[in-house]
Amino acid sequence: MPANRLPDVFLSEMRMDDATLREALAIANIPTLIPVLVQLTGDERWLEERYRPTRNRGLGDNATGGLPEEAQQEIRDAAFSAIAAWRDGHPPARPTPSEAELLRMLSFTMGEDVAPEYGPMIAAELGLGPQPAPWPQTRAGFKVLVIGAGISGLALGVRLTRAQIDHEIIEREDEVGGTWYVNRYPGCGVDTPSALYSFAWEPWPWSKHFALRDELHAYLAGLADRHGLRERISFATEVVAADWDEGAQEWVVTLRPRGGGPTEVRRASVLISGTGVLSRPRWPDIPGLETFAGPLVHPAQWPDGLDLTGKRVGIIGNGATSMQVVPAIADEVASLTIFQRSPQWAAPFEYFHTEVPEPARRLSMECGPYRSWYRLRTAWTFNDRLHATLQKDPQWPHPERAVNAVNDGFREFFTRYMEEQLAGRPDLLAKALPTYPPYGKRILLDNGWFRTLTRDHVDLVTEPIERIDPGAVVTAGGDAHELDVLICATGFDALRFLAPIEIRGRDGVSLREYWGPDDASAYLGTTVPGFPNLFICYGPNTQGGHGGSIVGTNEAIADYIMDVLRQMLEQDLGAASIREEVYRAYTAEVDDRHERMIWTHPGMTTYYRNPAGRVVVPSPWRVVDFWAMTRHADLEEFETEPLAARAEGAA
Fold first, then answer.
1. Helix H segments across 571-632?
2. Which domain holds residue 611?
3. What SS3 state is found at 251?
4. Of 488, 515, 550, which residue is a domain's last?
5. pLDDT tens digits for range 107-158
6. So what's the pLDDT on residue 645?
7. Whole-number Å distance between alpha carbons of 145 and 163
């Protein structure tokens, strides 16, 4: 970074008057204020033992840092003076700390050591990393087509716009937002903190610590508006197929209006999928499902105006979606019957639906250093702290209940929590308490689920479903549970990446044939040999099973893709596809690392794995490892072709 350039976090326009600033600091996160003070004042006394916060426990933000009130007030008073001075034009004393200094500050404010390998990622988050080189001039005819206007597509759209690359985004729905447009069921929200489930370069005054669907969609819709992306989006349009034209070095993409109609063709130099995996509903394969006479609903297709008041409602499934829906509708219905296939571990959710006070929202929006350090602290809590605890310990003597000693401690903690929540209901505890190791399936956050189970009109059924009749769900023991409405919270089609698009690469090879029906793999989850200039966001083995934010993962992948495009333009290349040997070696390493992790523990069943047992969905890497892998694309790992003469003059 040039010495005369301030990091972006110091370029916020702060308009808070003194009274409002004091009001905000009275409720601000104390550990976050400490590194802000160090940067603004340069005074390292704030890193002395007297002000050291306790280590974060659980998923909260440790708002007071466990410090005595006297020390907290000292920090608030000093923060007022420093932030007010910065607001009034006083330059920060230490705007560009070294990586070692950043590590020291984050370690101090988290109450635990942060490893050196996190230094570059922290610096980049604060805008202190190496600045990218100016983009090369694009060439005539070079066009990128992006499938999907969800988080991935929008992140790419912003980057492509800034690079002045001709592009178009194809979106099958009528609006941007992806999963946050499609999913509208009661209680729909995110289980990643709002501060992390957003782009660092696109702040938002989040009203809740964990945002609900409507605000998430508003954020993405506003992003599209502010960056002028809508004029690049073709709405209500589906991508049917894409075929690689070897001679022209282009993708020939077949489109049609959603719901049917005549097709049309687009040509693009580069094709990028941002389709995601949490929008295609998966219906249960249960005899008689189609005969149910009342409303039959999948949460991903929640009908407008569905009235559950006084209705007998059944819900199949007890995963993440069901845990959101059930507490949200419990007060409306006459009765609620939950059909559970297997119990789930759930962690306490300290900030469930907790509002962010208005002064704190303003402080976060207007004070860039505060916003960035709060985000950094949140990221440390939700990113990689858990990763080491999900590794199998071959010497651990109790693999039937845990994969290592720390994992067994989690089991004891979650068990105590469930016992507290279900106190006086041993019948429910027997049904709801899992026997498999915690985190063996996606860990859930308790948003009132266990308390809802104890209500008189709520029934938890663990007998397998035998069939569905027009007015009832019949279980294996012959019990008929009479219902007016049936909700199938049975998840999404998460294994068939890019489905149902038919993609054919070199020599007409189909991507579906190359992968098989449910065994997708890709180098960095992003690129596949034999499919030049095709890139995938949120591809196989990229979901953060141990933590992190899919927003951050998608940003890392978008940066990697953009680096490939940069080098293609700089070197006048027409095609680039990952080498087969690079892809195979990477896939083997992913599989090997998963064999050491909890998701391949014997007896585990999870949507993370395909029918053959291979882990397809989550990443085995720490967030910091994947971030480092995607900083730069090595074109030596690709088969590249110079721009063909006929492609050079193509329209």
1. 580-595, 623-629
2. 143-280+494-648
3. strand
4. 488
5. 999 999 999 999 999 999 998 878 777 899 889 999 999 999 999 999 999 9
6. 73
7. 15
**Residue closest to 87 by CA, chosen among 367, 371, 363:** 367
Query: Looking at the whole model, is its pTM more than 0.70?
Result: yes
CATH of residue 616's domain is: 3.50.50.60
Strands 346-348 and 444-446: parallel
For β-strands 472-475 and 480-482, DSSP reports them as antiparallel
Q: Of 82-91, 235-244, 272-281, 437-446, which gets the smallest average pLDDT?
A: 272-281
Contacts of 357 by beta carbon, 8 Å cutoff, 6+ apart = 27
Residue showing tokens 């039937």: 400
73 shares a domain with 208: no
Contacts of 494 (CB under 8 A, 6+ apart): 277, 278, 282, 607, 617
**What gap in Å lies between CA 630 and CA 434, rounded to an integer?**
37
Tens-place pLDDT, residues 42-78: 999 999 999 999 998 878 899 999 999 999 999 999 9
Q: Tens of pLDDT along 496-523?
A: 788 889 999 999 999 999 999 889 999 9
Short-list 226, 7, 31, CA closest to 129: 7
Residue with structure tokens 């001679």?
A: 247
Q: How confident is the model at residue 9 (pLDDT cuts 50, 70, 90)?
A: confident
- Which of 358, 382, 406 terminates a domain? The answer is 382
The CA-atom distances, in angstroms, between 646 and each of 167, 574, 649 are 21, 11, 6
Q: 396 and 598 in contact (C-beta within 8 Å)?
A: no
Query: Do the Cβ atoms of 558 and 566 come closer than 8 Å?
Result: no
Phi, psi of 250 (to 5 degrees): -145, 155
Give the CA diameter of the chain.
77
One domain for residues 158 and 210: yes
The Cα–Cα gap between 468 and 239 comes to: 35
Cα distance between the two ends of the chain? 39
